[in-house]
Amino acid sequence: xxxxxxxxxxxxxxxxxxxxxxxxxxxxSLSVGQVxxxxxxxxxxxxxxxxxxxxxxxxxxxxxxxDANATFNITPTxxxxxxxxxxxxxxxxxxxxxxxxxxxxRRDKSMFFVHGLFxxxxxxxxxxxxxxxxxxxxGRAIGAGGGYDLDLTPRFTFRVQADYxxxxxxxxxxNDIRVSTGLVFHFGHxxxxxxx
Amino acid sequence: MFFRxxxxxxxxxxxxxxxGLAFLLGCGSNSTHTAYVAxxxxxxxxxxxxxxxxxxxxxxxxxxxxxxxxxxxxxxxPSNKFVYAANQSENDISLFTVDSSIGSLxxxxxxxxxxxxxxxxxxxxxxxxxxxxxxxxGSISVYSINSGSGALTAxxxxxxxxxxxxxxxxxxxxxxxxxxxxxNVASVFAYTITSGVLQLVSSIPVQVGNVPLALTVDxxxxxxxxxxxxxxxxxxLSINSGSGALTLxxxxxxxxxxxxxxxxxxxLYVANMGSSxxxxxxxxxxxxxxxxxxxxxxxxxxxxxxxxLDPNGLFLYVGSQAARSITAFSITAGTGALTNTSQVxxxxxxxxxxxxxx
Lengths: 196, 358
Prior knowledge:
The complex is a heterodimer.
Chain A: H1 2-27, E1 39-50, E2 61-73, E3 78-88, E4 92-106, E5 110-125, E6 135-151, E7 156-169, E8 172-187
Antiparallel strand pairs in A: 1-2, 1-8, 2-3, 3-4, 4-5, 5-6, 6-7, 7-8
Chain B: H1 6-26, E1 32-39, E2 44-51, E3 57-59, E4 65-66, E5 71-76, E6 82-87, E7 92-98, E8 105-113, E9 118-123, E10 129-134, E11 139-145, E12 152-154, E13 160-161, E14 166-171, E15 177-182, E16 187-194, E17 197-200, E18 206-207, E19 212-217, E20 223-228, E21 233-239, E22 246-253, E23 258-264, E24 267-272, E25 277-283, E26 290-292, E27 298-299, E28 304-309, E29 315-320, E30 325-331, E31 338-346, E32 353-356
Antiparallel strand pairs in B: 1-2, 1-32, 2-3, 2-4, 5-6, 6-7, 7-8, 9-10, 10-11, 11-12, 11-13, 14-15, 15-16, 16-17, 16-18, 19-20, 20-21, 21-22, 23-24, 24-25, 25-26, 25-27, 28-29, 29-30, 30-31
């Protein structure tokens, strides 16, 4: 029984933990930046490994889609993030609507960040039975993750992000891993006006 | 700031990396098989995914799936592509196709007619023929199975006559012989099978105990076992490998109201509905003499009605109508002893039959 509970988190969870620990190790030598944009808006590609065995699939599902989020920075270090994502598979579609605090560790041309996310998950599974062509469920979602931004221009940065997501749909709980990458657009500022 | 301390951040990283390795090492096998359960009071078939190494049940999304009126028996095709359910109150068979990625069922209409009150289904190990036992009309409907679509076509001469109130039947693994248990005359009738066509071996059946409820054939095709619910015994009959004729060897005491029999290797499992336990016997290979193993009988929940062996021989699944559940018992190799795994599938209504995929 204990091995089964551990097993549920899967190899993808292990990769996620390695990624986060790498962020923490790298961030240990960073100095917190004194200047930050007021808004950071991200959009890009997302891969998600979904724990679909919890509602009867033979294997976990690999899905591709998008992730978008917007962060309002209250201070150069702390902000609030709203995250919307959708991933698509051959028989499944999953959406998340999340929000939560973000902690940023900034340096001149890059940033590490971690965040906690809370909100809703909406899953749809397309299987044909005598009475229905699909099944849908909406449930609670929580997540934790982080990422790394690298400045490309004063307004745009490149981002890589990884999140652990736990959702409750179809009467069961799923432990998923999501990896996203894309561009971040900055506008507004906090503290000293940044050089552009 | 917390993370400014290099030492602290490195300790945290070591912890997280260790956790990551633990998760990697702790990841168990996810090999599974599926199980389908007849739910007559719901007019439906339930579906579960079962982990091979732990017998953990997961209800498949969309389960239970609508069938006809009061499905009494269910069988999954060896290809795992089709499932059949005998609808005893509307005298027909539902054919379902199976979604290979999840195991969900989709019924294909129209349903196939049977005789009156089909109570049990059997299939040969190759999945070439489906047999339906019609209790009220006293007949056996035999169908060939289309390997591509699962469609059923009655073989020439079907349905074949037997006696009314025949309640159970069993087929040898080689599909050479079929044995039918009749409750009215408390006897077993033997048939030969040739390309799906049944022929009675003898018009004189072999008498067993009173109110027999279930029978099974051992994988070696040596013996037939019959649970006699009123006598609290299990009868052992030997099979003539040439003719299929049966000879009663003897009857052995069980618990109260034996209702089901299952064989794994040299061990016989008898579910006793009245005493809520399972008698486990070792079988002498040449004489058929049954000897209860150490610690038998084993407690088996509430009023166990039917038993199904898992395809890997690791677990015995026991169904209870009273408890509306299927419970998995692990089988100790070598001794045949049972241990309750605590893995239970709750069914919405009382289950009557179960079939597992390979």
